[in-house]
Amino acid sequence: MRFLSIGLRMLGAAALIAASAATQAQAWPERPVRLVVPFPAGGATDLVARVIAQRVSKDIGQQVIIDNKAGAGGSIGSAEAAKATADGYTLLLTTSSTHAISPHLMSRLPYDAARDFTPIAHLADAASVLLVTPSLPVKTVSELIAYAKKHPGQLNYASSGNGTIVHLTTEAFKAQAGIFITHVPYKGTALAIPDVISGSVQVLIDAIPSGMPHVKSGRLRALAVTGEKRSALAPELPTVAEAGLPGFSSVTWFGLYAPRDMKPDLVARVHDAFEKAAHAPDVVESLAKLGVETAPLGSPAQFAAMVSADSQRWARIIRERKITLE
User: Fold this and answer.
1) How far is CA 285 from the centre of its chain?
2) What SS3 class is residue 271?
3) How far apart are CA 62 and CA 51, in angstroms?
4) CB neighbours of 169 closer than 8 A, spacing ≥ 6?
5) Percentage of the chain with pLDDT > 90?
6) Which long-range contacts (CB under 8 A, 24 or more apart) does 283-288 make?
7) How many CB atoms are located within 10 Å of the residue 21 CB?
8) What is the pLDDT of residues 146-193, one digit of tens each?
9) pLDDT higher than 60, residue 211
10) Which residues pair with 206 in a beta bridge?
11) Around Cβ 194, how many Cβ atoms within 10 Å?
12) In CA terms, which of 152, 192, 208, 236 is 20 to 30 Å from 300?
């Protein structure tokens, strides 16, 4: 009887814990939600976060407060979010950089991208545009590849710095195309654009909103976009895959995480709130103006699988191309 009593008490405690977790999920949110963005205010990730957070705030009746914790390539803010309580009141909105790229470039990352977080939702993607200087005698991706093969080592490409998505995407392009173009890193693509316009650097992969105005003015030539499908911001441009490099794609994804071990019922509630907001027509429209497209509807498990595949892909590129932060 004594063991039966202990067993019943244990079952009762387990039931209370389960009931408490369910109540917590049903009650969320009872107070403002802190959304950590591990990059500076005014940058692409910050702007995406603010557009989505504004709509979530309206839908859930509580403020979603953006907390920019920039530094060390996003690792400072990501590490801080990872240490928070998994109660739905501290969340992280981040990108490929912190969870698919940095783990393979930074030897002392203050978090484990796979272990220290609960994946919540894949919210959006941003493709880029492949640009060349107008003096380069190419008008298509196939022509660029052919020209580079005929003139090995004579072309340069700009990036926003070592280990950035621009650097990795161009190296992935080079690897698949079988060409050699010399890397010239800058502290941001904005600083590189004058040199691409002048022709001292010939190739640049840039964000669509910042690159296309130079195309429309005739100062740069656009060959293709890097996503799996054409961009609404430049529908006349083919994808790189369409234009001569089948299977190629590269996007920056934006995703939502919580600290690890968040209860499944609460994960579902937070996921639904943010995914609903990301698909609201006004949010879709606002994101499109930033060159960002809302991601397809999906589950936290699908988001985790996508990130895992993306991480493995960049790990291979980083390893094979011997990419470092120096």
Assistant:
1) 19
2) helix
3) 15
4) 128, 205, 226, 250
5) 90
6) 283/51, 283/52, 283/55, 286/51, 287/48, 287/51, 287/52, 287/124, 288/232, 288/233
7) 15
8) 999 999 999 999 999 999 999 999 999 999 999 999 999 999 999 999
9) yes
10) 129
11) 12
12) 208
What letter would DSSP give residue 236? T
- Token pair listed for 173: 């392009």
CA 7 to each of CA 18, 19, 107, 189: distance values in angstroms, whole numbers, following the listed order: 16, 18, 47, 64
Cα–Cα distances (Å) from 136 to 71, 154, 160, 184, 208, in that order, read 37, 12, 21, 17, 20
For residues 206 and 133, is the Cβ–Cβ distance under 8 A? no
pLDDT in tens, 216-227: 999 999 999 999
- What are the E-state strand segments in 151-269? 156-159, 182-185, 203-207, 221-225, 252-259
pLDDT band at 15 (very low <50, low <70, confident <90, very high): very low
Nearest alpha-carbon partner for 129 in 96, 170, 183: 170
**Helix, strand, coil proportions of the chain in percent (round to 5)?**
45, 20, 35
Alpha-carbon distance of 86 to 55, in angstroms, equals 22
Structure tokens at 136: 């380069």
CA–CA dist 261, 258 (Å, integer) = 9
List, as one string, the DSSP characters of 24-58. HHHH--SS-EEEEESS-TTSHHHHHHHHHHHHHHH
| Residue with the two structure tokens 């030897």 | 107
Phi, psi for residue 159 in degrees, rounded to 5: -140, 170
Closest to 126 (Cα-Cα) out of 43, 223, 242, 38: 43
- Strands 117-126 and 293-294 turn out to be antiparallel
Alpha-carbon radius of gyration of the chain: 22
Identify whether the C-beta of residue 265 lies closer than 8 Å to the C-beta of residue 21: yes
* Core vs surface per residue 62-83: b (16+ CB within 10 A) or e: bbbebbbbbeebbbbbbbbbbe
What are residue 37's DSSP bridge partners?
Answer: 68
| pLDDT of 6 | 47
